[in-house]
Amino acid sequence: MEWQGTYRRLSVAPSTLFITRTALPEPRAETLPAAGLPSACPRETRTGGPPMKITPSARVLRMLGEIEFDEWQCIAELIDNAFDDFTEIHRSGTPWAGGYRVSVELPDSAQGQLVITDTGRGMTYDRLERAVRAGWSGNDMHDKLGLFGMGFNVSTARLGKRTRVLTTRQGDTEWIGVEIDLDRIGDDFEAEDITEPKADPNEHGTRIVISRLHPTRARWLQKNGSALRNILGQVYSWIFLNRPFELWVGGFQVKPVRHCRWGDDRSVLYNNKERIPAYIEIDQKLENGLACGDCGQWQLTDRDACEDCGSDRLTVRERRVHGWLGIQRYMHKHDYGIDFLRNGRKILRWDKQLFTWRNPDGAVGNEEPEYPVDLAHQGGRIIGEIHLDHVPVTYQKDAFEYGDRSWRSAVEIVRGVAPLLPQRAANLEYEENTSPLALLFKGYRRNDAGLRYLVPGDGRKPIHDDTRRWGHEFHRGNPDYQTDERWWQAVVDHEATKSRGKNAKAAAVTPGKPDEAAVMEALGFDGAEIGSPSSPATDPDETKPGAQAQPPKDGESAPAAPTPEKRKETRQERVTRYMENSTTYPSLSRSFGHPRVGFVEVEARRLTVGSLTDENLHPTPVLLDQRGGNTLVAFLDLEHPIFQRFGADPADLLLAEIAVLLRVQTSSEWSHSELIAAIRAESLPASALDAEMISAEAKELLAEVRRRMASELDRAGEPEKAFQFLSPDELTHTEHTMIANGKVTRTTDLGASGEFLLHVPALFLVRLVESLPSLFMDNRVFQGVYEGVASASARRLSLARTVGYLSDVATQATYAGASLPDQLLRTRLSIRLLADDLAEEK
How far apart are alpha carbons 365 and 10 in whole angstroms? Predict the structure, then answer.
């Protein structure tokens, strides 16, 4: 861009960069801070001698560009100052023509330029002079985003070697500005004073043009417009949602990146008595404090001057911790944690440090990760937004001052001082942690499908991959995924499907009165197999074809005349009936296909009433109904014998139907089996048998079992008894593992508590449960009944089921090498069944 206007040579004052002009008027006070860039602190006047000359090398300004700032941080520094101006205008209630808009034009090549324009009030010449100083800002340290005047110089020098700042106010006749050229500034410290004609006197705002961009920064900005919008959408999401500010980057408006959390009315029932919501608001006001308006430091009360910088600009300010914690609708390996904000801008995103407990009485660096602990490889789902406007931040605005007492008090409000894990807190003699974070941790720490932990499932297991995919649709703005209804329906459907299986029979056992028949039925054996009388059979003569109707007896009325034959149901009527009597089946509602044959969007629905029939009215487990375009509805009859008797996977049958459809539509030369294999690999990648993933799940579930068994030993006072079952080889393994984990102890101390179970060989747990079942069964660690069953054979059967699951999991955790597909299938099933068998944690 070529600039038309007037140029002058301006000098740069010692230790600062500012504009000078002949007969420059004295700066006048203004009621509101200037727009676009930070203002400067008042200059102290000194008499009685010549001023001290502190003239640095001209390299100082160029060295600012070496301070570590990411590209998005550099741009955010300049956006902050514009938003500060917008905030002042908005709070004043003054109507603002043209709206509140910041536009960022990205470079189109390595030789391009970066332009940032705002529609703020613009600046006077005097304020512009102070705004571009390479020194401390006069911005209020507690009400503004643009905390440091140095931020302007660092961000611009980091991006390029030449920066032009032009600004104008409504009614001004021209744009005024300055050009800072790092290659031309020499020992005279002079910069160019520039002006530019103004076409519309009503125009107002500030424009920053950075050219001669550093090549790496230019390439990043040129190629990463979408990523930049996403980052800024996260950083300023609260501002976009609560103020009428607009930010445009590369011609596209930046949208707020909202959290995909469960609704305010969702909750879980903990221990069948405590209702824990999935969304908790936090609003705690602390005692007002005295803060310095220049350096921002909080002071002791009853002071007249700042103890850090000597300023007398001390004001009483509110100190408040407010925001919310909640549960995300899906689990993620990285995108979970707490966002901490200052004045509406996110300083920390997805921060996880409050999930780690630091023992104040432990050694330096003693940290105990507490969340996620159950199947941690799947990630976490506790999220939140906490506003800490009174807590100081670093100059890069990427962290708070963690040593400041205001940060420590905020952490105590949000997560408490005790460990989140109840057993760890009890062992260390802490009182129960009742903080908001501890409450969510207690209610949602596990990832089991169903209502207990508010996790969507398919009747057998959690569907984490599907819920993550739905979360992606939420962030894309798909209207079908904005509320939590789809997630909620998957939770409800999971419970409905599960209730029809064996777990429903187990739940029917009368608490406290289990008997052999009840246990056998819960394990899936019918009455004939255990010697109980079967239900009376229907008289075959009553249903035998051709059986004669018996004449009515005396006093009985004759049977009613047969009704006329009903009209045959049309296909559309039948499909409508299926829609009314079905619910969404989330795990199979997705896009299916392959690049070689195309894709179809499938809405899978599970039939809740009646059975499915095809065009010839023959029972069928799967029925496709094509809709407009490449969309279809797939009805599933999960009561069909293929599922109930043969245990078929609904996905397999659905894939077979879709493969036929796509093969016909595209005249593909692939065989049906080849096409089914390709579609499964493309559309259902999570169903692959990944040995590493299954081993990780086994190890993490086993860690939970170890912890619970150790706690139960301590509760029962039986750790020494359990310790006696260790063989010499197992004892050696336990000692080596403890030393490797930094748990150095003497062998003689191992049996003093149940902690040794955290380090024993995995298969020892199996032997211990077999040897001491009364310590771990009957809803102590595992749900399986044992002591209350009179029959020895029923007790053995109940114990064998739990031990079998545990043995499979322990074996996979111990021998994590390559396994055969059937072995991996068995282990995956045992992991799910063992997780279901864990008792509700007290």
Answer: 53
